[in-house]
Amino acid sequence: MPAFEALKAQTQPHAFDFRSAAYQFPDADFTSKCVLAFELPGTVPTATPAGPGKSKLHVVLLALVKDAGGKIVEKASQDFQAEVTDKQLAALRVDTLSYASPVTLSPGRYTVETVALDREAGRASAGTFQSTIPNEREWR
Questions:
Q1: pTM of the full predicted structure?
Q2: Residue 105's beta-bridge partner residues?
Q3: What is the mean pLDDT of the chain?
Q4: Lowest CB count within 10 Å: 41, 86, 114, 127, which one?
Q5: What are phi and psi of 124, to 5 degrees?
Q6: In what order do the strands lie in the sheet with 96-105?
């Protein structure tokens, strides 16, 4: 399932747990530097054989930021592809995959749609959350 299809599905897929959030850092002009962050347990990505003692992983992360009218105003994505040794895979399984992407948003209400896609297994999970960027008066 491609990432955009997962976001458009009537019922959001939930094949595994992942977390996403937006963190705000206001500028002097009251736009907000934000960081869209993802966190995925290391046990989630499916590892497929890639030769003796090696496996490959492929995870796609996507976030669409929509304004109050539903227009996409920012996008963040990352396509992680890796070939790892068995030792590296064992270390990954007890760790967390993290990704953060900066975006700049003007004051307003936003809907953030996120999806994590395990390409090796064809599994996806999606989520939606709201984020409000305060205006100058609200920051003070």
A1: 0.89
A2: 32
A3: 91
A4: 86
A5: -145, 155
A6: 19-26, 32-41, 96-105
**Contact between 100 and 35 (Cβ < 8 Å):** yes
Whether the pLDDT of residue 9 is over 70: the answer is yes
Residue 140: band (very low, low, confident or very high) from pLDDT cuts 50, 70, 90: low
| 3-state SS, one letter per residue, for the chain | CCHHHHHHCCCCCECCCCEEEEEEEECCCCCEEEEEEEEEECCCCCCEECCCCEEEEEEEEEEEEECCCCCEEEEEEEEEEEEEEHHHHHHHHCCEEEEEEEEEECCEEEEEEEEEEECCCCEEEEEEEEEEECCHHHHC
Task: Fill in the amino acid letter for 95.
Answer: D
Distances (CA, A) of 108 to 7, 43, 63, 76: 22, 36, 18, 19
Rg (alpha carbons) of the chain, rounded to whole number: 17
Residue type, 7: L
pLDDT for the residue 107: 87
- Over residues 28-73, the pLDDT tens digits come to 776 678 999 999 999 999 999 999 999 999 999 999 999 999 999 9
